[in-house]
User: What shape does this take?
Amino acid sequence: MKIKLTKGELKRQRDALQRYLRFLPTLQLKKQQLQMEIQYRMTLLEEKRQIQEKKIAQVKIWAGLLSEPAIGLKKIIKLEKVNTQPKNIAGVDIPVFVEAEFKIAEYDLFLTPLWLDLAVEVFKELISLREEISVLEKGTAILRHELRIATQRVNLFEKVKIPEAQESIRLIKIYIGDQMVNAVGRSKIAKRKIEEAELAEVNV
Assistant: This one.
């Protein structure tokens, strides 16, 4: 990148450097907040998946009962809606799971097994858990994307923009300093020549 070696460019580079130094802490803070939130959500996801695995393992014990022709559990339980609410993390909106809404079909209490009520509740819990995990994964994916952008910006400021501005300022200051030294030198030479000319006139 070629820069103009002028006082105007020196001011522009100094102003730019001040902007970079002012914005960098904000970007670093955002990066840190995103990292912390992602770490928290990864821990939460692991906990939810472990709960899910335990519940599935429990269901498998009596899963054979669900194959009875009279059951038709899929027809009884229908997921109607997954409610979420937005949460702002470091300027980024992500969805947060609130609840899953179900429509439960009516079934004959005399024609169905006694354990069906329990099965319905367990499957509601499993489906809710599945949806909560899905929302957590979506939110985490959004945060990871924002973290990549924030990291790129921090790196751009730290490794490119700030060093470039500092180097430009250094080069311009050296050039202007050299110009001033040269100007003083030329001024002294001119003064000496004038003095020599005046002295020559006096001696004539």
